[in-house]
Amino acid sequence: MRTTVLTTAALAALCLLAPASPASPASPASPASPASPADPAPATRTAQAVRAAPQPRLGSCAPGELCLWAKPGFTGARHVHELSGIDIESCVPLPAGAGAQALANRTGRPVTAYQSAECAETGEFETYPGGGTWVPQTPYRVRAFKVWEN
Questions:
Q1: What is the pLDDT of residues 122-135, one digit of tens each?
Q2: How far apart are the C-alpha atoms of 99 and 93, rounded to whole Å?
Q3: What distance in Å separates the CA atoms of residue 21 and residue 13, rounded to the nearest whole number?
Q4: What is the rounded distance in angstroms from the CA atom of residue 28 to the CA atom of residue 36?
Q5: Cβ atoms < 10 Å from Cβ of 38
Q6: Which residues are within 8 A (CB) of 74 and not within 5 positions of it... i.e. 6 or more apart?
Q7: Which residues pair with 105 in a beta bridge?
Q8: pLDDT (tens digit, 9 = 90+) per residue, 94-141?
């Protein structure tokens, strides 16, 4: 997921920097011409679409907290765990039947999110840096986590 977000951001930045192709002065602009005012150049259309796309809204999560949301996009029930109340390198399961599909790690430490409620590595798991990682949709339902020493 993080790679996808970075790739999208990089693509958007490149599109914003790409100059539009002006119409050639030697050839008249026609409605079928890709550089005509009725049909802007592909780079211009892409840049306009990127600017018009709504920016994702980050969920509320204070420094020193790990925040987990039940639904993607930082929506649904939110579980907040403060670094001061977490045993470092211990498995912390979410309440029975609960799971998270979005998270924000603002603990300042790496956090591993597990698909397994027992932090078993036989299921899916992913470690997120602690300097302010926002994940609007995890690749699996998070059922437990571990906070690590730096």
A1: 999 999 998 899 99
A2: 9
A3: 18
A4: 9
A5: 9
A6: 57, 58, 59, 102, 104, 134, 136
A7: 66, 133
A8: 998 899 999 999 999 999 999 999 999 999 999 999 889 999 999 999
